[in-house]
Amino acid sequence: MRIKKGDKVKVITGAYKGTIGEVKQAFPKEDKVIVEGVNMVKKHLKPTQANPDGGIIEKEAKIHVSNVMLYDEKAKAASRVSMQIKEDKEGNKVKVRVFKKSGKEVGGKK
């Protein structure tokens, strides 16, 4: 899975198609992610000592990773991602994620 917590993604299918949000949590074993503001569900809470009123809250549910694409903010487009091996400053080989459309590294800190 090439999508990690903190990445900007664009939903490419489903009821929230076209929505851009940040990944709040990733579940690599399940191939699912939780995206901010996407796949909102209502959860009914029983009254407890901590929350004596109970009530209904709205929260994000998991969405399959195949329904989202990484979003390149500089190119303003969603893009597929490839993995490349590059050398860092110390000469160590590291894997980096690269946008297929623009060729830029994901994160773009360099």
UniProtKB/TrEMBL annotation:
PROSITE patterns: RIBOSOMAL_L24. Keywords: Ribonucleoprotein, Ribosomal protein, RNA-binding, rRNA-binding. One of its GO terms (biological process) is translation. Residues 2-29 form the KOW domain. The keyword Cell membrane does not apply. InterPro entries: KOW, Rib_uL2_dom2, Ribosomal_uL24, Ribosomal_uL24_C, Ribosomal_uL24_CS, Ribosomal_uL24_KOW, Translation_prot_SH3-like_sf. One of two assembly initiator proteins, it binds directly to the 5'-end of the 23S rRNA, where it nucleates assembly of the 50S subunit. One of the proteins that surrounds the polypeptide exit tunnel on the outside of the subunit. This is Large ribosomal subunit protein uL24.
